[in-house]
Amino acid sequence: MAERLYTALPARGAIKVAGEDRVAFLQGLVSNDVAKASASRAIYAALLTAQGRYLFDFFVIALGDALYLDAEASRIAELSRRLSIYKLRAQVTLSDASARLAVAVAWGEGARETLGLSGIGAAKEFAGGSAYADPRLDALGMRFLAPRDAGFGAIAQAGFAPGDAAAYDRHRLALGVPDGTRDLQVEKSLLLEAGFDELNGIDWQKGCYMGQELTARMKYRALVKKRLLPVTVTGTMPAPGTVVTLAGSEAGELHSGRDGRALALLRLDAVEAAANGAILLAGNARVTPEKPGWMKI
């Protein structure tokens, strides 16, 4: 059996959303059904512009009488500020919980079964916080939102061996799953291009939310012409943002990567050409796209 590993993610932080209107407040803003977030289930969601462009993505975890957003630590203040714009008379308070709660991940064969969790998104109380199966994709493993003074020791006691953030990043890249603003461009990226539908980040039955109209139109009119895909990189890894070309013409852009694996936003016609033997280049490196099993094109 593959080793089950865990690591802290210092690039992640947490916002506490408290108050009696917390669910209704978030429900009208984000792409997933916040009413489904409970002590036994976590969800993945995004906040968009009114034009349906990406602003933030995060996990929603219910702990006690509050909801917590596991988000990029460097953008916690901006996310809080943006949410505060929409508070109006809602009985809601927002506070940065990053000093008290840390985010960690665990992965490897049988990771979620180690804690008796069945199904992606399944959650349970853990060390004064929450442990939950990543709601995006089963193969990603577990996530934890737990007190800094006790959480990591409890994870090790649960049967996970220490890993590192670079190893988890390689695991994520191989699966083709985006990592916040490393792969998504603020006020530019579209959820359906980045796999949010297949990664359980959108609820198509919930009521209106910010940016819903464009997102729904893209789905039902089949307007998606680009996809964020995992790629293998042959040669020196180019910097994020490097243009990917096909026969000298722009075909997309490279995003996060390491150790010969990366994500790239590519035109679907260029992906088809590559499947038929055409060569995609990012600088002097060759880029070979792959279609992960979870992705529907």
| Strand order in the largest sheet | 8-9-10-7-1-11
Mean pLDDT: 96
End-to-end Cα distance: 32 Å
* Integer-rounded radius of gyration: 19 Å
Unreliable residue stretches: none
Helix amount: 10-25%
Helix-strand string: EEHEEEHEEEEEHEHHEEEEHEE
CATH superfamily of the largest domain: Probable tRNA modification gtpase trme, domain 1
Could you say which structural class the secondary elements and strand pairing correspond to?
alpha+beta
Strand content: 25-35%
- The CATH class designation of the largest domain is Alpha Beta
- CATH topology value of the largest domain: Gyrase A, domain 2
Number of domains: 2
Enumerate how many helices there are, as a single number: 6
Q: In this structure, how is the largest beta sheet organized?
A: 6 strands, mixed
Number of beta-strand segments: 17
Architecture (CATH level 2) name of the largest domain: 2-Layer Sandwich
Query: Which of globular, elongated, flat, extended, rod-shaped describes the shape?
Result: globular
Walk me through the topology.
Elements: E1 5-8, E2 12-18, H1 22-27, E3 43-48, E4 54-63, E5 66-72, H2 76-84, E6 93-96, E7 101-107, E8 123-126, E9 129-133, E10 142-147, H3 151-157, E11 161-162, H4 165-175, H5 212-220, E12 226-234, E13 243-246, E14 249-258, E15 261-267, H6 268-275, E16 280-282, E17 285-289
Parallel strand pairs: 1-11
Antiparallel strand pairs: 1-7, 2-5, 2-6, 3-4, 4-5, 7-10, 8-9, 9-10, 12-15, 12-17, 13-14, 13-16, 14-15, 16-17
